[in-house]
Design goal:
alpha/beta; 15 helices
């Protein structure tokens, strides 16, 4: 496995401000398509679109970068289409930094029938274990040493993902930051399987680096794409720390913290990883957006994070406010002429009332998805921006207490 690649200098990260004696910090990620000031919330644009939003709206609400999904773009329209278009950013008319995940999460979660979230609820005790599958579903993904065979959740066609294939797919998609192909486990997997899977992910990481460097040479006409290793290990401290030491010794540009964990342990697990990973490389926590999780992650050293939740809940009429999350479908909003949140600076709150947006939702007009999504994304982006500013000016603890105190006051 190569030690480094000369073009890695085209991507960089620096620590700017530290959060007291904690592992938290602010920083700056520099990519070929611009900077990301961290901590930062990365908007999720799964299929090269943040659902229901124009890229211009995503920019205007303050998002610094978007994250697309390699699995979904591989199936539709195909990575070669994005490559011909000049990469993800040009394809979707987004000029800022972009991320793609490796597809490993979707291969495993959809392959187990648990859809977009590994949710073990509803699985009876005798079904728990290394081969757990959602009730009424068939297993669509099968892991071996070389990679994963899986069936498309769209057509049922059989496909193959391996570290090399994932790297080729992501290089064609052309995001500024991409993730190594890893095996996702669940909290129901045995300790023995977690150990086996972790070692397989380590071997896959080595193969990802080698193929990434080969493709970087081959595709020298394209901007450099940074590669992040993915830390697994579930809730086992020794496995998490081992994964960080193993992958931290590899020439990754940064690291993703993924895998199964319970909410109450999030900060602790991120902290284990931050203590072991190289200080001069960014850390991305995959899949969080709840305010308490974000603050826990920031304190524990996470630099960036992403989640589909702001737009997903918007499609069910849920909207965020400083006092918590509410559902606009309630009858009390029928004649509510105020904005989704008083004082909010988003486009939606500047122009539309709760009554109007509720009407759109009840009438099944898709504009309700757009208007609530703008507000929800702006809410999370603004909160993370506020956390970053408060670290810089020394008011983080007051900002955290006020923000969480109001949000969870109900």
């Amino acid at each position: 496995m190569p030690n480094t690649h000369p073009r890695q200098s085209e991507f960089s990260f620096r620590v700017d401000t530290r959060l007291g004696s904690t592992l938290g910090r602010t920083g700056t990620i520099t990519t070929p398509h611009g900077e990301i000031k961290t901590p930062a919330f990365i908007a999720v644009g799964t299929k090269a679109t943040v659902k229901a939003l124009l890229p211009e709206s995503v920019r205007d609400l303050g998002a610094q970068a978007v994250l697309a999904n390699a699995y979904h773009l591989y199936l539709q329209p195909g990575p070669e289409i994005l490559d011909e278009a000049g990469g993800l950013g040009k394809f979707m008319n987004w000029s800022g930094p972009t991320f793609t995940d490796s597809g490993g999460f979707q291969v495993m979660s959809l392959g187990s029938g648990f859809k977009k979230v590994i949710d073990m609820q509803g699985v009876s005790s005798h079904e728990h274990g290394d081969d757990a599958v959602a009730p009424g579903k068939e297993r669509l993904a099968h892991v071996d040493e070389d990679g994963v065979w899986f069936k498309s959740h769209l057509t049922g066609d059989k496909h193959r993902f391996s570290p090399e294939i994932s790297m080729n797919v992501q290089h064609q998609i052309g995001a500024d930051i991409m993730f190594a192909f890893d095996e996702l486990t669940t909290l129901q997997n045995s300790r023995a399987y977690q150990e086996e899977s972790l070692e397989r992910t380590r071997r896959w990481a080595e193969r990802c680096v080698a193929e990434h460097f080969r493709l970087t040479e081959e595709r020298s006409h394209r901007p450099y794409q940074a590669l992040f290793g993915v830390i697994q290990g579930a809730q086992y401290e020794d496995l998490r720390r081992k994964a960080c030491r193993d992958l931290g010794a590899m020439p990754f540009d940064g690291f993703g913290i993924g895998g199964a964990l319970e909410k109450e342990n999030l900060g602790t697990i991120v902290g284990w990883c931050s203590e072991e990973l190289p200080e001069d490389k960014p850390r991305h926590l995959l899949g969080i957006s709840e305010p308490d999780d974000i603050f826990a992650a920031i304190e524990a050293g996470a630099d960036t994070f992403d989640c589909v939740s702001p737009t997903r809940v918007a499609r069910n009429s849920a909207f965020y406010t400083a006092e918590g999350r509410f559902n606009l479908s309630g009858a009390k909003y029928r004649r509510d002429w105020g904005p989704l949140q008083e004082g909010c600076d988003c486009y939606t709150c500047q122009h539309y009332s709760r009554a109007y947006i509720r009407h759109l939702y009840k009438a099944k007009e898709l504009l309700s998805h757009t208007l609530i999504s703008i507000h929800n994304e702006r809410f999370v982006v603004r909160m993370v921006d506020g956390a970053r500013t408060s670290i810089e000016d020394g008011t983080f603890w007051d900002f955290k207490e006020e923000t969480l105190g109001r949000y969870y006051s109900r």
